[in-house]
Amino acid sequence: MNITLVVVLLLILAGFFLFKVKRPAFDAQSLRNSLLKHRERRKSSGSPATHEPLLKNDECPIPLPNKETQLPKPKALEQFFLVSPDNELESELQRNIVEKLNKPHPVLAELSTQITSSKQLNKSIKKDPELVAKVIKSANSPAFGLKKPITNINHAINYLGLNQVHAIAMQFALKTTVSFNTKEQNQAYQKVWTAGFIASTIALELSQSLSLESAGELATICQLNYLGDLAVIQQDSATSELFISPSNCLKRTHYIQSKFNINQAALASLVAKNWGLPKKLQDSLKINLLPLVGTSVENVNQSPITDAELMVCYISCRIAELLAFNGKADVIEYNYLDWPNTEEVEFYYTGEQLEKANLEKLNNAYSSPEFKRKLRAIYTDMKL
Question: I need a surface site. Which of 34, 200, 267, 375 has the fewest CB within 10 A?
């Protein structure tokens, strides 16, 4: 046989063999290490890479991750689950926690309903002169960057908008619901109060950027979301340490569930029910932590809010907590709110959940210069 023909046949057989051999699966940890090294090289080269996405289609040196090459789940999440709130009323301990809170401010019930006019909001706030004074003082904060001082509630509404003034009034009305005996409880309360204010502000800004009609409602959910945290702080002073020292949402939720057999979101829903707040608000509060375990509203029977609305609330609260509880100012500079870019366990599922909710543009809203300017101003004004 012609030697040339033999060589050709051997080359064909070798090529066929290589094609049939299955490539080894891409190692997830290697992927992550490569991503981080790529970002570090960009930093050292002088490129403005702080919290830029680890992957870009036009410059990524390795394949984009897919379902087969997902980054490994954090160990803390592997065995974690949310305690079902279905039977929470059967627990005497949980009822005692809820009932121990003071009765709500008389104006809170009105503010918790859907307020659609400045006249309606003005009327509600003016029922309490102290609340009027606090709202006006807060409206004049440097965080809002006003050129002229605010002198009355109508003035505040005209300059800041209905939803922002409503959020400020809600926050101060909530201050009357708790009373503490120890220094640690008061420190924890101040941090929780701050987180609620920041979360409602973030929710307002993001909702308006995303053209969600429920902006005011979502800001209210974010504020009342912390009723469960306030309840456990008042019930057990040892819980204060969870808010005074740096921690994350997963750690706090795990501790509260193990001690009270209920999570803080479900507890906030019980408080809202005990206060006679709207049923839709109660149900919205109950599901606020679902994104922590990668669950969407499609798993909720007759969900009061959409996946997009849930994600705005969840992300707003988690960012606020990193700022208020941990003093982590660099979260303001994040452009992509997912696990690879933040390395925060509470964002492990947010990338795929935003995609599922058709809300990927939330990252664009969060990374806009105007949004970041406002968030930096609030953070500075809160003296965090």
Answer: 34
pLDDT above 70: residue 161: yes
Same domain flag for 227 and 334: yes
- E strands present in the chain: none
The per-residue pLDDT for range 255-273, each reduced to its tens digit, is 999 999 899 999 999 999 9
pLDDT band at 254 (very low <50, low <70, confident <90, very high): very high
- The total of structural domains in the chain comes to 2
Phi, psi (rounded to 5 degrees) for 247: -155, -175
> Which candidate, 356, 301, 311, 358, places its Cα nearest to that of 337?
311
Handedness of CA 295, 296, 298, 304 (dihedral sign): positive
Establish if 60 belongs to a structural domain: no
pTM of full prediction above 0.70: yes
- Is 269:85 a contact under the CB 8 Å cutoff? yes
For residue 67, the tally of other CB atoms under 10 A from its CB is 6
Do 179 and 110 form a contact (C-beta atoms < 8 A)?
no
| Rounded distance between C-alpha atoms, residue 338 and residue 99, angstroms | 38
Question: Is residue 162 within 8 Å of 115, Cβ to Cβ?
Answer: yes
168 CA to centre of own chain = 19
- pLDDT for 70 equals 61
Residues 244 and 169 in one domain: no
Task: Write phi, then psi, for 66 (nearest 5 degrees).
Answer: -130, -170
> Looking at residue 14, what is its pLDDT?
58
C-alpha angle with apex 214: 212 to 217, nearest 5 degrees? 145
The pLDDT tens digits of the residues spanning 72-130 come to 888 889 889 998 755 544 577 788 888 888 788 888 878 887 777 888 888 888 888 88
First-residue to last-residue Cα distance in the chain? 84
Structural domain of 277 = 75-102+182-381
Query: Which burial class, exposed, middle or buried, applies to 115 when counting CB atoms under 10 A from its CB (0-12, 13-18, 19+)?
Result: buried
**Inter-axis angle of helices 118-125 and 153-160, nearest 10:** 140
